[in-house]
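To: structure desk
From: M.T.
Subject: fold request, one chain
Message: Could you run this one when you get a chance? Sequence is below, nothing fancy, just the single chain.
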Amino acid sequence: MRNADLFVHKWKIIESERKIWEGEVPRAYNISVLETPDGSTVVANVSSETQLSSFKVEEGRDKWRTCCHAAVSCCQQMMSEPQPAGYCPSTWDGWQCWPATPPDVEAKRPCPPYVYFGKPSSCPKMATKQCTFRGTWYSIPERDGGFREWSNYSSCGDPDKISSRLYVHITAYSISVAALLPALCIFMSYKQLRVHRITLHKHLFISLLFEATSVITLKLLQLHRKDVIEKNPAWCIGLNLLTKYTSLSNYMWYLCEGYYLHKLLASAFAEQNSLVIFYLIGWVFPLLPLSIYVGVRGYWRGNKNCWILPMDDLEWIINLPPLLALLINILFVVNIIRILVGIMRAPNANEPTQYRKAVLSHIRW
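Reply: Done. Structure tokens follow.
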């Protein structure tokens, strides 16, 4: 196992002999295993950082031991029991043992407690595995062109709670759409509102509207078309990337609002002549981190489930720009307050009254 530092220092890597049988002839070979403090050995071939981190605590190690014992029992059971002709054969799917099953029957097994890397579900959950009419287990295609047997453990989660959260998200974003549409209509209907400040508001509202509609569509797919998520079509990946792009764009337009107000005050209330720089920040810049994310995830991390599941460290490519935008806006706000306090305390503070009103109205937006 690589990254042995995740284990307690008392665990050590040793050489161990294993045997395999080629026909009737055994062949010995050496492998690296981990020796526990009690003298037993653990061998594994794991590349997932999430799985590796589960070995850090005794609870995680105990779950792995339980899983390994279940695998050994399954192997012994398969070797000792005859396999009925025409049935899907008994098998170990990596999590638990499935008995021989008649053709065209869906086998069901309780979700084992070690599939949960947290608190197990309080209610019994059942995993399923489909035996096809040909007497073979249902398989899904792999990227290398091969196939692997597939078991459905999605019910081992808490689908009711997940569905409720998705409905809450859809409801919240629907309310946003209902509020944004009339606001945009008002902004676009009156010539008096065609000023730079309102233009920035319009683009921010448009980005919010795009994000809300794309998120609603994606959540509806997760609720009602899980088969589409599993098939992983290109348009589904594009929809997920659109939600990320519009979310990035939201934060960039927030930054544009703060930058505009700060420039208005810091430059003696000089009006902005062109909004090109704001368009570049709000609509073009988000394409840069998104392109890096697409390139890295598409090349190194595989392509499945419409990229809905986050990839831990890769998500920082998307999350870092919004954090920086918020930090810069905080600095803008601090400096704006400093400037306003200076104006209020000035001897001729009554002169720029109209400017202070304009600034306060912008802050309210």
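Reply (cont.): Residues 159-364 form a domain with the Rhopdopsin 7-helix transmembrane proteins fold (CATH 1.20.1070.10). Let me know if you need anything else for the meeting.
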